[in-house]
Amino acid sequence: MDYANRKRPPKRPPIKKKPAAKKASAQRAVPWRIVVLALVLVGLFVWGLVTIAGKRHQQPAVSPSQPEPVPATVPQSINELPELPQERWEYIDELENQEVIVDVPEREVGPPKVMQCGSFRQLADAERLRAQIAMAGLESQVRTTEGQTGTWHRVILGPYATKREAEAERHKLERARIHNCMIWNWE
Fold first, then answer.
1. Within 13 Å of residue 73, how many CA atoms lie on the same side as its CB?
2. How far apart, in Å, do the first and last CA atoms of the chain sit?
3. Which of 130, 120, 177 is closest to 152 using CA atoms?
4. What's the CA gap between 38 and 31, in Å, rounded?
5. Which among 3, 18, 124, 132 is placed 20 to 30 Å from 169, CA to CA?
6. Structurally, what CATH architecture does the domain formed by 113-185 represent?
7. Could you tell me where the Basic residues compositional bias lies (predicted)?
8. pLDDT tens-digit profile of 19-58?
């Protein structure tokens, strides 16, 4: 379709407004009842505020013949202090002289732990992982073993006295993006 050469649509005739509707809105009656009610409510509100404010500023008159009451609990001198109360409790003395015996079982330390981070057919792969572990700040070893399926080169860390020590070093390795390290009992 050629938009440049198309014809303009025919003009519509303007909509004529009715003059009666215009006059009716201009001559609408003011609701005098609502105006009077609003003025009365505003007047009552202002009168209430003035009444409250006037009561706040008024102070009761004090006759000069009556002396001011003095509280009975005030000491006569600043240096005078009240007496210390007597202790009513006896358990304080009893507890100071008691000895508590607690039976703490010793932690069972299992066999030493070793952490294996990889097992490879090629020695070069094992040495590459060992270098990554060294860059993380830990010392590892490559142990070569002969099995039924051939020669394996294992990358191990340890031995550790507790599993907690091994877990701490495994977290260091995970922060260095070395994953899949397993903790085993040392044989």
1. 0
2. 88
3. 120
4. 11
5. 124
6. 2-Layer Sandwich (3.30)
7. 1-21
8. 655 555 556 777 899 999 999 999 999 999 988 887 655 5
Q: What is the pLDDT of residues 161-186, one digit of tens each?
A: 888 999 999 999 999 999 889 998 87
Return the residue matching tokens 């981070």.
Answer: 117
- Cα(148)–Cα(146) distance, integer angstroms: 7
Distance (Å) of CA 119 to CA 41, 154, 181: 92, 4, 10
- pTM tops 0.70: no
Q: For residue 160, give the nearest of 180, 140, 143 by alpha carbon.
A: 140
The first and second tokens of residue 114, run together, are: 């070793």
| Sequence spans of domains, the chain | 113-185
Taking CA atoms, 182 is separated from 35, 58, 114, 175, in Å, by: 87, 86, 8, 15
Sign (positive/negative) of CA torsion 160, 163, 169, 173? positive
Cβ density class 128-165: b for 16+ within 10 Å, e for less? ebbebbeeeebebebeeeeeeeeeebbbbbbebeebeb
